[in-house]
């Protein structure tokens, strides 16, 4: 595991469609079919990262709280599965069922999605408003394994509350910290 931080630079990107393998169904699907006209959260996660394992319970709670309010959530794993077989689509499906992920869990085999968004670590969050503009990029909250801070999802929750209340959000970045994405060589 190589501890890595996400970028703190402001990004001028819009949400973009890709066709990826959705691990639960075993079928390729267009991620745009999961976008919301209220807000969409794209999460870069993986199975083996201790930083992701640390927040998994809150990911499920957060998603369940906001799906019913019209927010969509998509998880994407971009790791090289030749070097990290525990992140394979089959294992993704197992984890998704075991943890009862209420969101689709996509596999980015070519790593083009991670490159487009500029993702560097897991977990890393990108929140888009209903028009597809990036509003937030970074961490779930300040909690990390063994730092004693409770996992609350406060940073993501605060942005989603603002979006759902119709407020215009100036793009915010609060770097995440976790395992580096395992790039293919």
Structure description:
- The chain is an alpha/beta fold.
- It has a single domain (3-180), classed as Glutaredoxin (3-Layer(aba) Sandwich), CATH 3.40.30.
- It is 25% helix and 25% strand.
- The protein contains four helices and eleven strands.
- It has helices at 50-67, 89-99, 112-117, 154-164, and strands at 3-5, 19-22, 27-30, 39-44, 71-77, 105-107, 121-122, 124-129, 134-138, 172-174, 177-180.
- It has an eight-stranded mixed β-sheet.
- Strand 2 (19-22) and strand 3 form a beta hairpin.
- The longest helix is centred in the N-terminal third of the chain and has 18 residues, at 50-67.
- The protein is globular, with a radius of gyration of 15 Å.
- The two termini are 17 Å apart.
- The mean pLDDT is 94.
In short:
The chain has 185 residues and is of the alpha/beta class. The protein has four helices and eleven strands. Strand 2 and strand 3 form a beta hairpin.
As for the number of domains, it is 1
Spell the H/E element sequence.
Answer: EEEEHEHEHEEEHEE
Output the CATH topology: Glutaredoxin
How would you classify the helix and strand content by structural class?
A: alpha/beta
CATH class: Alpha Beta
| End-to-end gap | 17 Å
Shape: globular
β-strand percent reads 25-35%
Number of helices: 4
Lateral arrangement of strands in the main beta sheet: 3-2-6-5-4-8-9-10
Q: What's the total count of β strands?
A: 11
Q: Report the biggest beta sheet as strand number plus sense, adding barrel if it closes.
A: 8 strands, mixed
Which runs of at least 5 residues are low in confidence (pLDDT < 50)? none
CATH homologous superfamily, by name? Glutaredoxin
Q: For the residues shown, what is the average pLDDT? A: 94
CATH architectural arrangement:
3-Layer(aba) Sandwich
Helix content: 10-25%
Radius of gyration: 15 Å
